[in-house]
Design brief:
2 copies of one chain form a homodimer. The first copy, chain A, is α/β, with parallel strands linked by helices. Helix content of chain A is about 50%, strand content about 15%. In chain A, helix 3 links the parallel strand 4 and strand 5.
Chain lengths: ~260, ~260
């Protein structure tokens, strides 16, 4: 199975690194940004290109890890009908390939990938989907080389999976951003929050998120909520978010 | 140092357990709820009471871990002037003791405590404050018996510390709650999100929260945001939170 990686961002970099480690054959890396293509090509020790006309046409599978908005334009130009084409996006239906090529699918890794931060790929859940049984087996083969957790999931459910991940990861991280705005302004080292942040995540191994909910809003501690709101009164963004989330936590605690 | 615990909730339970483990002498447990007093008294193997008149008057320190709204009423009744009185609340100023007793302070553990979930107390940061140097030393002595991280912090900064913890812990956990609402409705096991949740927290050991921010809003992926909003259109609570946080993440990403 010869692989061409279309894209050289965080997902492509982490996937490519994991494939290489497991001895999968990466034929080439493409990125529309010359510098990114070069960096990932060198990292993986494989040729790279930055115009779609130069994409190697002899691979067995083309894996697309490009911005959702570029995906359709990119695959329309690549279109190598003998190969499998698979994207890695959470919110793009598999049908995006339908009119362009006969064998296609999705490899969606449910993880947050950042530069300079290694990932235990073995533990990452991958959600695959395919145009046909044979293609599904090929995708499962590639995924199973790097991860112990490969599941089949429809486009419709993958979209919901991705949406839940936005809450569990992106919005969660934004709560860390807001917490760090407060500690920075107070001259407190953000790192003292780390045991709390770790424990908040770790709790979910023992309790449901609803059971794990603590804090002023969960116990309807109006006095504390009012004190907090007063502190945030002239910080529009923090104030609005604090108010909406507290109100919402209180409601859901009461409805239980 | 003989200790009386005023309160028998999550904080009192975890503190009491840690004190006992380190051989500190707990004289008695008080809770206004007979059942809670009994449970914690039995757990710690010490006498308990549920009326303030029965509180043992011969302790060296009274540690209050009661709801903020009960704190003042409780300490007004306990008032044993020879002893140290310390509360454990993030958002209550130390001055709450001022007119009731001469030696007082605060022991604020920055952690989320839930029933049936053990904590590594050694790693929990404690923020102390005291009416005088001697009292401060006594509080530091007690805290240092159970934790490696004892800091002095003013009431004003402790309030900001607590507020940042609401974002880093309570609101973060609420994001997990909302994620689980989506997976439950989709018939997907919430546990597939665990590696993502763990990694989102773990990343902060390597990156600042702002550097770690990923997702549709961070990359201004309007198409995906619109798809997500459409899914949430008839879920008022999720829709409002998704919209506000996405808008806010986008703005802060652009301002960098």
């Amino acid at each position: 199975m010869k692989i061409v990686l279309i894209g050289a961002g965080n997902v492509a970099t982490h996937l490519g690194t994991a494939f290489k480690k497991k001895g999968l054959e990466i034929l080439q890396v493409y990125s529309r940004t010359q510098e990114s293509a070069k960096v990932l090509g060198k990292l993986l020790g494989v040729p790279y290109c930055f115009t779609l006309e130069d994409v190697n046409t002899s691979a067995d599978i083309y894996i697309y890890a490009v911005k959702d908005s570029f995906l359709e334009a990119t695959l329309r130009k690549v279109c190598i009908p003998n190969a499998i084409h698979a994207h890695t996006a959470g919110s793009v239906p598999m049908a995006v390939f339908e009119n362009h090529t006969p064998r296609y699918g999705v490899i969606y890794p449910l993880q947050t990938f950042s530069k300079n931060k290694e990932i235990k790929m073995k533990e990452v859940p991958f959600f695959i989907e395919a145009s046909d049984k044979e293609t599904e087996e090929k995708l499962r083969e590639i995924v199973s080389a790097v991860s112990d957790n490969c599941y089949y999931l429809s486009s419709e459910k993958r979209l919901l999976m991705h949406l839940s991940a936005v809450f569990a990861c992106n919005f969660t991280n934004y709560m860390y951003v807001l917490a760090s705005e407060i500690t920075t302004e107070a001259g407190i080292d953000f790192n003292v929050l780390m045991p709390l942040i770790k424990e908040t995540a770790d709790k979910l191994n023992y309790l449901t998120p609803a059971e794990a909910q603590t804090g002023p809003a969960a116990r309807s501690d109006e006095k504390t909520i009012e004190i907090h709101k007063k502190i945030l009164a002239n910080k529009n963004n923090l104030y609005r978010i604090y108010s909406l989330l507290s109100e919402s936590i209180e409601k859901s605690a009461k409805s239980r």
